[in-house]
Amino acid sequence: MKQYETVIGLEVHVELATKTKIFCGCSTAFGAPPNAHACPVCTGMPGSLPVLNKKAVEYAAAVGLAAECEISSFSRFDRKNYFYPDNPQNYQISQLYEPLCRNGRVEIETESGRKYVGIHEIHLEEDAGKLVHDEWEDISLVDYNRSGVPLIEIVSEPDMRSASEAIAYLEKLRMIIQYLGASDCRLQEGSMRADVNISVRETGSPQLGTRTEMKNLNSFRAITRAAAHETQRQISLLESGAAVIQETRRWDDAKGCSYAMRSKEDAKDYRYFPEPDLVPVVISTQWLEQIRAAQPELRDERMRRYKKQYGLPDYDAAIVTSSRQMADLFEEASAICGKPKKVANWLMGETMRLLKESGKEPDEWKLDAGKLAKLVNLADSGDLSNTAAKEVFEELFYHGTDPQQYAEEKGMRAVSDEETLRSVIGEVIRSNPKSVQDYRSGKEKVMGFLVGQTMKAMKGRANPGMVNQLLKELLQQ
């Protein structure tokens, strides 16, 4: 059997985080009742005219800068003509001939090391509506809330050679865009979607094979499975002597297979022509410099700084920078309490656990830097036991509760009264003479048992630091 190589290129659609749509004043908020956010412009009524959202242009340019693209000083919109029920105008306003951003690249980590994935272009366009299929009534309904939501389409070069590289590229794009605040990139809500272009060729061949396109995949799992399935399907066709047909295919994640939708269109099939109702977009040097000056510190830069400034290991730095919200919280809490490693430990442990259990995104938590710093100090000083501190942290995560106030109301503060602790420890020593003798004979591991007995007697509310200190003192007498 011949050896084959997979070639993958991605067209990534990202909904921008503007408050209003790209060509009208309708809200872009997710989850509204069907057709609540619609007007004559975004429903394609005759005589309505689009007006470009300036913030959408700035977000698109910011993503382009972060992806090392050339930002065009002059770009314009075109009409992409096609008929589909969720496309109310029977055309989509997009950018074909003169897109906003060109010739960029994104660095990714692969199994064989770092590599760059080229970006052919990033262009602005409007999203279509959403079809809702009611199988019971055997009808399809259209929700135009999404129609006109601003999108950027990020078109890569065919530089990826496996599904894992495609996922690494998507994760890097997602991280960049989230750090910029240009989109929340929530795949489950459709604010980030990918069309996957796949072809195969004999290993070493300079010629690209015939590609197919898998439309609107909105999870990393679906992309991985679809890429593997399509690669094998094309190899099987070639091995049997059949030809791969250039077409658009639909991936069914539940069945684990794909099926043909239509032959793959070329630009001529859409009858593109310049959008007559919108003037060209002209980005002056001054405007571009303002956008550049507003760029935040991105993840790669923060990771390098955290390792140098705070002495964090690679793993810690990677976790605390896994979202902009996490990184901001880490910096602010560390500045307040002065204990960056301990702040990082709470973020890597309990925070990641609760995010996974709750299914929440970092921008949905109730964590506050000042309250987190307060909890770190309470736990570090021994005022809260480890178990109590975890319980308090859950309250902080879900409800934003003040740690000190909650601990006091629930009677969770550790007992630090020396007289009380001496009395309890004295009783533990008298009740465990053999363990005491073992300790005095050099078996220092027995100390853990005696500490445990003390904590048990205090119902977990003793200050562990003071317990250790007083135990050693009393055992040496």
If you had to describe this structure to a student in words, what would you say it looks like?
- The structure is a single chain.
- The protein has 477 residues and is an alpha+beta fold.
- A hairpin with a 4-residue loop joins strand 13 and strand 14.
- The chain starts with a strand and ends with a helix.
- The strands form 4 sheets. The protein has a 9-stranded mixed beta sheet with strand order 2-6-7-10-1-11-12-13-14.
- The mean pLDDT is 90.
- The chain is 40% helix and 21% strand.
- It has 15 helices and 16 strands.
Low-confidence stretches: none
What is the CA-CA span between the terminal residues? 80 Å
Number of helices: 15
Name the strands of the widest sheet in spatial order. Answer: 2-6-7-10-1-11-12-13-14
Helix and strand composition category: alpha+beta
Overall mean confidence score, pLDDT: 90
Q: Main sheet, how many strands, which sense, barrel? A: 9 strands, mixed
Percentage of residues in helical conformation: 40-55%
Shape: elongated
Portion of residues in beta strands equals: 15-25%
Query: Could you tell me the radius of gyration in angstroms?
Result: 29 Å
Counted beta strands: 16
Fold blueprint:
Layout: E1 4-15, H1 54-66, E2 70-71, E3 74-75, E4 78-81, E5 91-94, E6 101-110, E7 113-126, E8 130-134, E9 139-143, E10 150-156, H2 163-180, E11 192-202, E12 212-217, H3 220-239, E13 247-252, E14 257-263, E15 273-274, E16 281-282, H4 285-293, H5 299-309, H6 314-320, H7 324-337, H8 340-358, H9 369-381, H10 386-399, H11 403-409, H12 418-431, H13 433-440, H14 446-457, H15 464-475
